[in-house]
Amino acid sequence: MTDITFLGDTPLKRLKKLMQILRSEKGCPWDREQTFETIAPYTIEEAYEVREAITQNDLPALKEELGDLMFQVIFHSQLADELNAFSLEEVCDCLTEKMVRRHPHVFSQGDNRSVKEQTDAWETLKAKERAEKSQDSILDDVPLALPALMRAEKLQKRAARVGFDWPDLDGVTGKISEEAEELAEAARRGSADDIEDEMGDLLFALTNLARRLKVDPEKALRRTNDKFTSRFQHIETKAKHRGHKLSDMSLDAMEAEWQAAKKIKLSGF
Questions:
Q1: In terms of DSSP H, where are the helices of 56-114?
Q2: Mean pLDDT over all residues of the chain?
Q3: What digits encode the pLDDT tens for the residues 4-31?
Q4: Is the CB of residue 179 less than 8 Å from the CB of residue 201?
Q5: Contact between residue 105 and residue 118 where contact means Cβ atoms under 8 Å apart
Q6: CATH 3.20.20.150 fits 142-215, yes or no
Q7: Global model pTM greater than 0.90
Q8: Crossing angle of helices 251-264/217-241, nearest 10°?
Q9: Contacts of residue 113, Cβ cutoff 8 Å, sequence gap at least 6
Q10: What angle do CA 67, 5, 45 make, to 5 degrees?
């Protein structure tokens, strides 16, 4: 194992020193060229890789991916430090202070709140923080960079907290039917802009249904993606075993294999 103690006496100090070296004149040319903007896509990618390790219940991989994500925090903090904006230590202190502030039932009041009471209190604190940042809308701090499906769900949850929500599932499913009809009409007209607009409305309505049914739409779609992948790969395997090219198979033949894949429940689906 490589001796890295020369970088510092604690893991965090070693990481910080490592980043400083990589960004120095004698460090890595690629690391020296990076900015907040160029690093941001890697930050998002690493967060998704953490999620993948969790989904696969792979703890060794999770340890590695959490390290990769942490490195992104170190990288951004170093960039900010070079601009005299803030340091890694200030990032840590800011986070600690915020978590203490948002958990008064743990660190000050010491009361025994229920999960619902804590959720309500959390929203009250978040609203106060938005006001301090001159964010007037309850939707202002829903990140724009979130995946569209995830952001739609968060926007709907925020609106629902102040009563802007369908009273029952009938209203939600009715809206889905309405949006589906509007999408079909846009498709008949052939306007690409209208089709995109109506497709978005339909996806938003479907996300709302998932929220009301307490289903994570992102997770549900990932599950279907995996299911589709397994079944389609079954078709590819069958074609290969028979010496056929997939492109030469008829749609009926592929559909027959698809139905066969469904019956054997590939990969648990």
A1: 59-82, 88-102, 104-107
A2: 89
A3: 777 778 999 999 999 999 999 999 999 9
A4: yes
A5: yes
A6: no
A7: no
A8: 120
A9: 105, 121
A10: 15
- Cβ-contact 181, 112 below 8 angstroms: no
Q: How many CB atoms lie under 10 A from the CB of residue 77?
A: 21
In sequence order, the 6+-apart residues with CB closer than 8 A to the CB of 234 are 257, 258, 260, 261, 264, 266
**What type of residue is 220?**
A
Fold topology of 5-101: Helix Hairpins (1.10.287)
Banded pLDDT at 170 (limits 50, 70, 90): very high
Opening angle at CA 69, ends 63 and 98, nearest 5: 105
**How far is residue 191 from each of residues 82, 194, 224, measured CA to CA in Å?**
50, 5, 29
pLDDT single digits (tens) 117-168:
666 666 677 667 766 766 678 888 888 888 899 899 999 998 998 899 999 9
Residue 110 confidence (pLDDT): 58
Whether the CA torsion 121, 126, 128, 129 is positive or negative: it is positive
* CA dist 69 → 28, 39, 63, 110, 149 (Å): 19, 12, 10, 33, 22
Within 10 angstroms of residue 70's Cβ, the number of other Cβ atoms is 14
> How far, in Å, CA of 120 to CA of 104, rounded?
13
Dist CA 37 CA 96 (whole Å): 26
Integer angstrom CA distances of residue 9 from 4, 17, 238: 9, 11, 58
Phi, psi of 168 (to 5 degrees): -150, 175
- Residue 90, CA atoms < 13 Å, CB-side half-sphere: 9
Which residues fall within 8 angstroms of residue 111, CB to CB, at 6 or more apart?
105
Amino acid at 240: K
